[in-house]
Amino acid sequence: MIAILGAGALGRLWAASLPAGETAFVPRAGASGNSPVDFQFQGPDGSIQDVSVPWQALGDPVSLLLVTTKAGDTQNALTSVMATLPGNTPVVLFQNGLGSQQAVAQRWPGHPVLAASTTEGANRPDAGTVIHAGSGQTWIGAMNEAAQPYVGPIVQQLATSGLSIHRESDILSRLWQKLVINAGINPFTAILNCANGEILTSEFYQQNIDSLCSEIAALMAANGQTKERPQVLRQQIETVAENTARNTSSMRSDTLAGRKTEIDFINGYLVRLGIDAGIPTPVNQMLTEQVKLLSPNIQEQPD
Ligand code: KPL
């Protein structure tokens, strides 16, 4: 049984894509999941499928735990679950940004902890519908030594979903690449309340993007990542913004829905790295503050 912690759009995408009967959602601490999670799943080709996913019952054997909670929610959500999992059960983290993955790997060093970086696009326009808006790619790699032997078998197991899964020997670099994109697109779309492509013509973006990319390039070099020129990072950001021009970013949709955003694990994470390395990050800081001002009183909410 593959257990899934986090019944949001991404968790439901995996539940709908893996073979029927092989997945169950993990109830949050204090919550009792009784009736199954029922939803309609729309594939990228427009096909509709009715999906029903049970909640994991106490004592159900779990071969693998997929964690699809928001980054800011992950440690809390995992705490009660880890206490009930045998120490050799692998855990795959699907969070956006960086910081939460390292925190989990450090907190449970004996557990095989893996991380995934995915470009699958899924959204949940209402409680009973999940749309797999665009097929993407998912890379999976080990976050600690204990996870190394599990990477190949997990890639094979998750490939039964029909999604495109790859083994990644340097998952941290892969997560950094996605971080660059998210740091350069998401806060601008949330602050400007616009689709991804529209940031490119905005004055606010044009005024800040080069300094932002210089900050990120310096932080990458200081953190053992390939030293990229800021112009190269800007090009990468703009290619994705163009390719996803009509999309609403996850940060803009969180803001519009009144949910807590993942800014602390994207630009906020870069600010923390800057403080540690003595590298000034005024643009990351400004973007983090402005995104937080959009939703000042929001508490953590489970997906
Ligand atoms: O990953 C994304 C997100 O919205 O979080 C991008 C790449 C910006 C696509 O919308």
Got a strand count? 11
- SSE pattern: EHEEEEHEHEEEEHEHHHHHH
Distance between the termini: 22 Å
Number of helical segments with 4 or more residues: 10
**Uncertain spans, ≥5 residues at pLDDT below 50?**
none
Strand order of the biggest β-sheet: 2-1-5-6-7-10-11
Bound molecules: ketopantoate
Instruction: Provide the structure class.
Output: alpha/beta
Radius of gyration: 19 Å
Count of folded domains: 2
Rounded mean pLDDT score: 94
Beta-sheet strand percentage?
A: 15-25%
Helicity, in percent? 40-55%
Instruction: Write down the overall geometry.
Output: globular
How would a crystallographer describe the biggest sheet? Answer: 7 strands, mixed
